[in-house]
Amino acid sequence: MQPPTFLSAQDRQLQSPSISIITLHLRRQQHTRRLVESLDAHTTLPFELVVVSQEADAETRAFFRQIADERRVRTDRHGMTVLFNERNVGTAAGRNQGLRAAGGSLAVLIDNDTEVSAGWLEPLVESLKQDPTAVAVGSMILTPRGRPQYCSHYVVERWGGDGSRSIGLHMDRHFDADDPAINQACEVPWYPTTCLMLRRSCLAGDELFDEGFALAEEDKDICLSLRRAGYRILYNPASRVSHLGHPREPVYAAIRENLSQLNRDRRLFEEKWSCGVINESSRRFLEQSGVSPEQIALCERISLFMKVVP
């Protein structure tokens, strides 16, 4: 793999903040800009920003130079480093690049199609500060309409009577964001890297993420690896992040929805851990989401990656 090139808008001789925020960028400039602006507007703790760009053309480099210039005008508190890959190296490899470049003792992995809200970071820091056995903690992830997309109720792990194991998402009903059922900090079996803070001192070596995963399942994989090492994964709903989701731009959708690669990632995970992947939605959940009966029937017939359950 060709090493990435750098754009740095911070003085590396200065003491690095204890928190690094790491995001991946591919094509969606508007999303990346909105994330950076929300981080600067709603983050009071000092942090450094590390962006791993999966493209390095002249337009992308100019975009990040502009972002760096805007941040210098907007704030003088936060540093920024951008790593440019000449090609898309994949999600897991990109996250590893960001972690190697980061200087903080705590690292937040956050998708670039998210926006943070006031007070989002402190609960994550406090969770890891209070529990030395915890190595990761995730935020409540909200849809643009303010409904929980990922929360403690949806992330599940199951054991069969024959010793079989499966892990993933079970979406059975909608919640209000303030529903007491999902507003208790707790331990979870895994959590998506949509917004996940990691304690870097507990991570082994440079290759935190298995770079065999190109698009998916790397979050489940790292959580199981950390649990196997004796650590706990936490959820703290006091931290809330909105997930905008990717637009139906054809080129980007073709990358993110590559069914053959998604299937390879799933098979790799299942073979590596002897563990099935759960991706279930109940009929009630789909109906409440506005999915038509015809679309639900189609999902029931073609259940490649999402299973419809009663």
Structure description:
The radius of gyration is 19 Å and the shape is globular. The strands form 2 sheets. Strands 1, 2, 3, 4, 5, 6, 7, 8, 11, 12 and 13 form an 11-stranded mixed beta sheet that branches. With 310 residues, it is an alpha/beta fold. Helix content is 32%, strand content 27%. It has one domain: Alpha-Beta Complex (Spore Coat Polysaccharide Biosynthesis Protein SpsA, Chain A), CATH 3.90.550.
Q: What is the overall silhouette?
A: globular
Please give the CATH class: Alpha Beta
Number of domains: 1
Estimate what percentage of residues fall within beta strands: 25-35%
Secondary structure class reads alpha/beta
Measured on Cα atoms, how large is the radius of gyration?
A: 19 Å
Mean pLDDT reading:
90
Provide a count of the helices. Answer: 9
Bin the helical content. Answer: 25-40%
The unreliable regions are: none
Task: State the distance separating the first and last CA atoms.
Answer: 46 Å
CATH topology call: Spore Coat Polysaccharide Biosynthesis Protein SpsA, Chain A
Please identify the oligomeric state: single chain
CATH architecture descriptor text: Alpha-Beta Complex
